[in-house]
Amino acid sequence: MARATFAVAGQPAVPFGQRRNLLAVGVISALFLGAPSSEAAEVTPVDGARILAADQEPGNWLTHGRTYSEQRFSPLDQINVETVGELGLAWYVDKPERRGIEATPLVIDGRMYTTSAWSIVYALDAKTGNELWRFDPEVPKEWGKRACCDVVNRGVAAWDEKVYVGTIDGRLIALDAESGAVVWDVNTIDRRKPYTITGAPRVIDGKVIIGNGGAELGVRGYVSAYDAVTGEMAWRFHTVPGNPADGFENATMEMAAETWTGEWWSYGGGGTVWDSMAYDAELNLLYIGVGNGSPWNRDIRSPEGGDNYFLSSIVALRPDTGEYVWHYQTTPGDTWDYTATQHIMLLDLEIDGEERKTLVQAPKNGFFYVIDRETGAFISANNFVPVNWATHIDPETGRPVETEQARYPDPDQPQFIVPSPFGGHNWHPMAYSPRTGLVYLPAQEMPFVYGRDPGFEFKLGEWNLGVNFAHGSIPEDPQAASEVIPLLKGRLLAWDPVANEEVFRIEHPGPWNGGVLATAGDLVFQGTPGGSFAAYHAATGEELWSMQAQTGVVSGPVTYEVDGEQYVTVTVGWGTVFGLIAPGEQRPVSRVLTFRIGGTAQLPEPEIAAEDWPEPPPVTGSEAQIAEGRQLYLARCFMCHGDAAMSGGVLPDLRKIPEASHAVWDQVVLDGALAGRGMPGFSHLLSAPDSAAIQQYVIQRAHDTRVVAEQ
């Protein structure tokens, strides 16, 4: 057995015993929060040969997308269009974290590995749900302020007899799959900067690949590979160039710098690789999706224009060295937060009578792309939701043809644009069925009003967008808000990637609907933030079965087999960025739900909390102070406590805090009295008058919305 080690990015790994004090808490958590069950299935090693031959063992889910191609299609068919009506709950596991859940579980020979909020890892018996072990990486709760989009995690990777997880505070940790004990723990970031990890790692030829997030807060993006045995860093590929005065890491970065202007490096540049990856073993190419710029607004980060490589791009790398091979940029010179970090899927398609190795993606910008995955050459693109920032993608160049109103250089002329920064499609995974030839795509319509922020000032670690959010915020007037809400739409699209067109759609009550699973039983499974989890006929879209999960369902489901019986599992829990920002009262319950034919388990009756809306303190601020408070709230508070001070039900609703809490407002907001619970102090950014202005704005909102609620 390999000797356990602890490693730091860019430094040699050292024996575990020499860093025992740093890892003790994690080891104790793993050993005592859940001891291995004597009845648990035996741990079996995972390697590249197994993942490449995944269709030969369809009862397992070995990697994030089941296969390296990330198609999320299962050959299992015991649960099918004829039997799905008999589907029932086999077991469920409640988790105590009560935050957003986005994880795709892995299932390997009867063992399930999944994650929860704060990067906590669970190992469960896949047949019974019994907990085998639990590992808490003890992420400092103050780090949550660096997470743009909730303290979520999208899952683990498996290799040999280890499980790998990226943590919200930028570590990559290898765990023993049998016990959950730490094997090594590597720091992947500059800890002085606001990086986070929410994505699932992938492992290729013994190298664990992981990216990170933080572009909104002022970082420079990259993806790294670590030795699966020792934790030593093998390579790192930066996605945007650094300061030319420091020299470039390689010729690729020197080439990329030619597409930037100004002093972009002083803002970080962005381009984080926070989610999607795929791998073609035959071509030996790793595909990564690259995110938005820092700041969003190109007029600030690159004032004389430029495409800004490799923002909003799909980049092909050699997984053994990190060498750049090719890229395709979906949104040149992005200024709308149109990331290309959305699900990447590899499909072999017959196009114009020719078999093509393709890569497909539906990024935030609203266009469905089909490109040649050998060369990066453009094949086709078509919008899958309404867009008005571009008329089409030029078939000769593969570049978008922008409309006149697309960009917003004048602070006095904001522009109504679709899609919004939430995108026509976000991180929620798609699925593909070779039986129907269709991609199943969680799509949404969400407009936004972009306007340049005239008072932009870069502050590392805070939201650096260059966009005036006052234009895009939900109107505070109830009548105006009622006219905006119907504009927010969501649907599941069945999309033909060859014709690049919609085949049918399933309308949902709103946006932010869950990831998708397709099966050989001609079924498509998807959840909604309203709590529905349903199975649809893959050929027609007819709903064949559904159940109510009692909380939001946005993760990607999986299916597997144990002892000859097929199961379907989905992790559920309200939160994520939409749950934090959007108004609502969904229950923040965190669960794993698993179904089988004939399942008879029942969820407990939901706890209905009594509505508690105490009389708010009197408004003492002037109109000018309250207006200033609104601007400060939008700049500092809305990402956690909700747009227009209307909480989504995950974190405290500031409109409903009691008078005693208002009495200690500055101790919390400025001094960090609740830092241990995830509410850090902001005295480095806010003055006492700033804090008072925000408080008066919140009190005003409490009075306004309380009156509406009582009517």
Give a written overview of the molecule.
With 711 residues, the chain is α+β, with helices and mostly antiparallel strands. The protein has a domain at 625-710: Cytochrome c-like domain (Cytochrome Bc1 Complex, Chain D, domain 2, Orthogonal Bundle). The protein has twelve helices and 41 strands. The chain is globular and about 70 Å long. Residues 1-38 have low confidence and may be disordered.
- Mean pLDDT across all amino acids: 90
Going across the biggest sheet, name each strand in turn.
Answer: 2-1-12-11-10-9
CATH topology of one domain: Cytochrome Bc1 Complex, Chain D, domain 2
Fraction of helical residues: 10-25%
CATH H-level superfamily of one domain: Cytochrome c-like domain
Decide which structural class fits the backbone.
alpha+beta
Unreliable stretches covering 5 or more consecutive residues: 1-38
Describe the sheet with the most strands: 6 strands, mixed
The span between the termini is 68 Å
Instruction: Figure out the total of helices.
Output: 12
Beta percentage is 25-35%
CATH arch. level architecture of one domain? Orthogonal Bundle
Radius of gyration: 24 Å
Sum up the overall morphology in one term.
Answer: globular
Q: Briefly, what CATH class of one domain?
A: Mainly Alpha
Count every beta strand, where a strand is a DSSP E run of 2 or more residues.
41
